[in-house]
Specification:
single chain, mainly alpha, 8 helices
């Protein structure tokens, strides 16, 4: 190490996840209060932006960073077009949903990997954990939408409406295991994914979030 250079840190420096959390909350509010087809296309853009924010805070190699950025830049306009295209119809919408789910999966992995590497638990750690939890809800909602579009517009039991709002509502009530019962998956593919989501939500809350909250210390506590 050259004279005057700072000593390398033994533990990673926490990233900053406040902006990512705001993007995710804004995306949810947009879809919750605006019932329009173009919301799905806007969410593709917002979710791609979210994975880039998660990438900014990650500790992966530069080569991997360049690869993810290239895939996001190339894929985003293609999936944006598929969301609006009438030529590809339901198949195009399903492909766009699968893309969205994969983008969100990448974001969740990047966030959790970075949060677990934090040397100390800070408010940014908790922001990151909450962001990852929201990302999981969006990811499963995209999987439900893909199942719906690729299986002949069949998903909910009793003919309940299937759209962005109801998929996200069903996803988060499943992730948190609230199980209101007003929306239920009517077919085996949706049921299987719903069970997987409920298990994922329980494991996530019982491990990562609980661990971070229990280990959180304010700056005054750390100085003491």
């Amino acid at each position: 190490m050259a004279p005057g250079e700072p000593a390398p840190s033994a533990t990673p420096i926490p990233g900053r996840y406040g902006a990512l959390l705001i993007v995710l909350i804004a995306s949810y509010l947009l879809s919750a209060f605006i019932n329009a087809h173009w919301i799905e296309a806007v969410q593709v853009v917002l979710f791609t932006f979210a994975v880039l924010l998660a990438l900014r805070n990650s500790s992966i190699s530069r080569r991997a960073v360049r690869l993810v950025i290239a895939v996001a830049v190339i894929g985003m306009p293609v999936m944006f077009g598929l969301s609006f295209s009438t030529a590809t119809g339901e198949v195009g919408a399903g492909i766009a949903d699968i893309w969205t789910a994969l983008v969100l999966l990448a974001a969740a992995v990047l966030i959790v990997r970075r949060v677990l590497a934090f040397g100390t638990v800070t408010i940014q750690s908790i922001y990151g954990a909450v962001s990852a939890y929201l990302v999981l809800g969006f990811m499963f909602a995209a999987v439900f939408a893909a199942i719906y579009h690729l299986s002949g517009d069949q998903f909910f039991a009793h003919g309940e409406a299937a759209n962005t709002q109801t998929f996200q509502y069903f996803s988060y009530t499943t992730l948190t295991t609230l199980g209101y019962g007003d929306f239920t998956a009517g077919y085996n593919p949706g049921r299987a994914v719903a069970v997987l989501e409920a298990l994922t939500g329980q494991v996530f809350l019982a491990t990562l979030v609980a661990r971070l909250v229990a280990a959180f210390r304010t700056p005054a506590d750390r100085q003491g």
